Amino acid sequence: MYDFVAMAAWAEFAVRWLHVITAIAWIGSSFYFIALDLGLHRDRNLASGADGEEWQVHGGGFYHIQKYLVAPPGMPDGLIWHKWQSYWTWISGFVLLALVYYLGAEFYLVDANVMDLGTSQAIAISLASLAFGWVAYHTLCKVFVEADQTVLMVALFVLLVAMAWGYTQVFTGRAALLHLGAFTATIMSGNVFFVIIPNQKIVVADLQAGRTPDAIYGKIAKQRSTHNNYLTLPVIFLMLSNHYPLAFASEYNWIIASLVFLMGVTIRHFFNSMHARKGEPHWTWAVTAVLFLLIMWLSTAPLFRADTPETAQGSLTRFTEAEGYAEVHDIVLGRCSMCHAEEPVWDGLFWAPKGVMLDTEYEIARNAKAIYLQAGLSHAMPPANLSWMEEDERATIRAWFENAGG
Fold this sequence. Notes:
Elements: H1 2-39, E1 52-58, E2 61-67, H2 84-102, H3 105-108, H4 119-143, H5 149-168, H6 173-208, H7 215-240, H8 245-248, H9 253-275, H10 283-298, H11 317-320, H12 325-335, H13 361-366, H14 368-377, H15 391-403
Antiparallel strand pairs: 1-2
């Protein structure tokens, strides 16, 4: 059994590594081509008939790049398709979702205090929500096909806010933000798989048959690529959020997630404007900073004093001698140490999660700040509140940490 658990842990690590690698490749190529398209010089009468061109220098050489709209006169040899980065990012992400949240539903997906669901019910809701995301988004694109694209983006934002709130009413805070990221990533990969690549294949087929391709296919593909461009940064934030309890364990986590989408718009607007040679709207950074400060406030970050010393730099005895320690000691032993111990008694655990042990006076004092953050200020621990930590116990932890001058 121990070997199986170790192998499962390494399998998760391998899939996570693959997910990060393919995501880097996808995001890099996506950002590059958006910047390239925006920066093309379209005011030149090119002999090749191309729509625009740009010269770039990189890696010790010069590149002369031209873009044809809708297509070149004939089918070029050795055409490179940019699609597998997207496909494997989604596939590896879904496998990781299954390994961590489906197989570990008891810890990470289901919280009976939010909604009392069975594992199969929670997984079914998860899968259905991802499918719903693509259908809802694709429908919005069709409904607003003739409208101003700003109207479509506002409609998409309303959908994302609704899903952010909805996920927090069903899953744990950690799973809610992760699912919102998966929901958005599914839209992005769906754009590539169902729209962008099929449209490009139609254009290629027309070229091979000697027909003049319809410009509408390229226009639609570019629209979806632009949507992906604005959604990328929020997805990265949401995927990283599961490591930061102040983001996912706050009662305002769905508002935090909603504001992150706005930050994605402001940041990308700056770079897209710069690449298009339309100036550098620095006001976007001010707006982004305000949004981030609001997120920090919503996550209760202002509760920390600027001069708070790190736990490791102070004397651990101040935590064991502080008022309320005896009560906190009993709370931690009763609610946390079944997992966070040298020999965990929770079924399926062979070592303390992340090596954190809370079964001795020294360990509780050494991890005082983590206990305060994850069980006092937020509801990150216990995961899904499996040991039923009460609100008054969390208040006791907060009071103890503050009494110790933490």
